[in-house]
Specification:
283 residues; mainly alpha; 12 helices; single chain
Length: 283
């Protein structure tokens, strides 16, 4: 009888599950729930990063990738694939995180030594320049190697599919970044009044800007390393939070985290529904 039941599944028993209810429960605990938690974590990180970058740069179109974090992460992934034969999702995560940290440090060293008028503008200009250089180098490295291009394409799509194994890796960085970002709302309120006014209120402007940029980069780096570059989530979440909570960053910052999480999970669900509908129609 047990043999006949196994035959329905192609002669192969379903994997064991935490509650013993079979294959559906196994998929739920090993794929669906980790994927949802990863989406919520990445979305919250991108939302917080987007709002902080917007506040620090005083630019409504500021994006979490503005400091070249995404291109730096991609550059290290390419180098790891080329010279270290890294092909696993977890390997991509640590390479991308190292690349993002390296790029952020390089941007800080260059940006704080420019005569751009303000330290924040110098960081932005350095990030845009380095992102352009790294993008060209990535194209040069992968255009001649189809295998490297295939591996990079998997990582650079920006997706939650197959990324559940990195959930344990991203959580410490994301939680640390979110906890550091939450009390930063009051400082962002003061910085938004202008550098001179902030100095008059006793704020060390350069130190505050550097700390805020570091937290934003940490959040963006962890999110990018986990699921690849994800465009517009941080930008849209920041705009939604500002529309709902106004200019007070003490309220808009946590709201931007929530908006980012909802946007990313909503986009993932919508994408899977569209794909399933398309497959059923063409089947």
């Amino acid at each position: 009888m047990a043999r006949a039941q196994d035959g329905r599944a192609g002669g192969r028993a379903h994997p064991a599950a935490p509650d013993g209810t079979g294959y559906n429960s196994h998929v739920l605990w090993t794929e669906r729930i980790p994927r949802t938690l990863l989406g919520l974590t990445v979305g919250a990180a991108l939302g917080a990063s987007g709002l902080m970058m917007r506040a620090l740069t005083v630019h409504p179109l500021a994006d979490p990738g503005i400091l070249g974090v995404e291109q730096g992460a991609a550059m290290f992934v390419v180098l790891g694939i080329l010279f270290l034969d890294v092909t696993g999702v977890t390997g991509y995560f640590w390479l991308a995180l190292a690349g993002a940290a390296f790029t952020a440090t390089l941007v800080d060293l260059i940006g704080t030594r420019t005569n751009a008028g303000s330290s924040t503008l110098g960081l932005v200009l350095a990030g845009v320049a380095l992102a352009a250089v790294m993008s060209s180098l990535i194209t040069l490295l992968v255009v001649r190697d189809e295998a490297v291009y295939a591996h990079l394409r998997f990582w650079s799509l920006g997706q939650l599919t197959g990324r559940a194994p990195v959930l344990d890796d991203i959580v410490p960085f994301a939680v640390a970044g979110l906890l550091l970002a939450l009390p930063f709302g009051r400082t962002l309120n003061v910085l938004s009044m202008g550098e001179e006014a902030a100095r008059g209120l006793g704020v060390r402007v350069e130190r505050a800007q550097l700390l805020g940029a570091a937290v934003a980069v940490l959040l963006c780096a962890a999110a990018t390393a986990a699921v690849g570059p994800v465009a517009f989530v941080g930008l849209v979440a920041a705009h939604c939070a500002r529309m709902l909570a106004g200019a007070d960053h003490r309220w808009s910052l946590p709201l931007s985290m929530a908006c980012g999480a909802i946007l990313l999970i909503g986009a993932d669900i919508a994408g899977r529904v569209v794909l399933d509908t398309a497959r059923s129609r063409w089947a």
